[in-house]
Amino acid sequence: MNKWISYPLICIFLLILAGCWDRVEIEERGFVIAVGLDKAENGEGFELTQQIVVPGKFGPDSASGGSGDAYLNITRQGETMFEIIREVAAETSRSPFYEHFKLVIISSELAEEENNLPHILDHFIRYHEMRRATKVMIAKGSAKEILEVEPKNERLPAIYIDSISVNNFKNSRMVPVSRIGDLHEQLLNENSYTIQKVEKGEETVKVVGNAVIEGKTNSLIGFLEAEGTEGMNFLTGEIQGGIIKTKYKGQDIVYDMKTTNHKVKTIIDNQNNVTIEVKIQSEGSIGEALLPLNFEDPKVIESIEQQIEQEIKDKVMNTFEKVQEEFKVDIFGFGNYLEQQHYQKWQEIKKDWEQGENYFSQSTLKPKVNIRIRRSENILKSYK
Predict the structure, then answer these.
(1) What pLDDT is stored for residue 377 in this prediction?
(2) Integer Cα distance of 159 and 134 in angstroms
(3) How is the chain split into domains, by residue range?
(4) How many other CB atoms sit within 10 Å of the CB of residue 295?
C-alpha cells in the first residue's frame, strides 16, 4: 500500500481505537448500590427507591460529615423498572451506574402478588450492568424505610445491611444470602424456596428469619421467624455456626456449634407414606453455663449431650409441622432427594408433591441427632 495512503489510515485507526474516548470521570458517576421496591401509591406499578453514592463526600474534607451526606435516596414511580430508571437518569446530574450494585429489597406487599417476583427480577437478570451475585431480600413492611435507616457505624445504609446479611455463619437463625443468580434458577424450576427477610427496628435493621415463596406462583405466602428458621437450617444442612440454649438441672446452658453435618435418606412405601430421615451430627463446646459443671464426669457430658439433642429434635419437628400445616410447600428441598434416591417413583408423585394431593404435607419426618461436646477446649470446672 502506498505510504501516503497508509499513514493517514493509521492515524484514523489510532483515534478510533483510543481507550478513553468515552470515559466518564468518577465524580460524574451516580453509583447505585441498592434499590428498594414498594407498591405504587395508586396501586399500579412500582415505587422504586435508588440509593446513590455521592463520591465527593468520601474525601478527607468530608470526614466529619453526617452519615446521610454520603448517599442520596431517589424515589420515583412507574409501571416498569426500565421506565423508572430511565426517568431518574434524565433528572440527575450523575448518570446511574450499576457496576457496584449490591442489594435489592422488595416489600412484602409487592411480593405477595402472584408472579410479581419474576416481573421485578426480570430487569435485574437482563440488564448488562447487573451482577448475578447481587443480594435480594424481602422487607417485612416498606422497602423504602429500610434504605432510610441511619446506621451509626457505617456511612451507607446499603453497606450496613449487606454486611449483616452474611453473618449466618455466626447466627443459626439466619438463612444464607439469596442472590439474583440463584433466584433465576428457582424461577425456572418452579420449586418453592426462601429469601432472607429484613425488618426495620427503631434505629437498626434485623436480618433474621426468612420469607417463604411458593414456587408455582412465585409469591410470598408467609414468614418463618427466628425459631422456625433455625429448625429449617438444621433440615437443609445450612447451619454454619451459632448457639443452642437449653436447660440442664433447671439452669441455662449454651452449646456453641463448631461443626455440623446432615444426611438425608428418603423412603417411599406408597404415595401416601413418604418418610424422610434426617441425620444431624454436630460437634462443639459449652460456651456458657449458669451452674457448676464437672467435665471429668462422663455422665455429666452424656446427660448434657442428650439434652441438646432433644432440643434440636424439638426445633426441627416444630418447624417441619408448621411448614406442613401452614405453608404446605417443600422449602427444605426434600423433593430433590426423592428424585435422586427414587427416580421412578418420583416421576409418579412429583406433580402432586406440593400441588394436588400434596404428598409433602402427608409425609413423615424422623430426625436423628448426635451431639458431641469437646472437652479439650473447656476447663474441667468453672466453679464449686
Answers:
(1) 46
(2) 12
(3) 23-224, 232-373
(4) 18
CB 34 within 8 Å of CB 64: no
Please tell me the predicted confidence (pLDDT) of residue 106. Answer: 96
The DSSP result for 43-100, as a single string, is SSSEEEEEEEE-GGGGSGGGTTS-GGGGEEEEEEEESSHHHHHHHHHHHSSSEEE-TT
Q: What per-residue confidence (pLDDT) applies to 329?
A: 96
> Residue 13: how many CB atoms within 10 A of its CB?
10
Which stretches of the chain drop beneath a pLDDT of 50?
Answer: 21-22, 62-68, 376-378
Pick among 2.60.40.60, 3.40.50.720, 3.30.300.210, 3.10.450.50: CATH of 232-373: 3.30.300.210
In terms of Cβ atoms closer than 10 Å to its own Cβ (0-12, 13-18, 19+), residue 240 is middle
How high is the pLDDT of residue 341? 96
- Residue 1's pLDDT is 53
- At 97-111, the pLDDT tens digits run 778 889 999 999 999
Place of cell 395508586: 42
Q: Residue 45, CB half-sphere, CA atoms under 13 Å: how many?
A: 13
Per the structure block, which three cell numbers stand in for 51? 440509593
pTM listed for this prediction = 0.85
Helices (H), 105-201: 108-111, 116-126, 143-147, 157-165, 180-189
Q: What share of the chain is helix, strand, coil (3-state, %, to 5)?
A: 40, 30, 30
Among positive and negative, which fits the CA dihedral 151, 157, 161, 163? negative
Cell 457448676 belongs to which residue? Answer: 292
Instruction: Output the pLDDT for position 68.
Output: 46
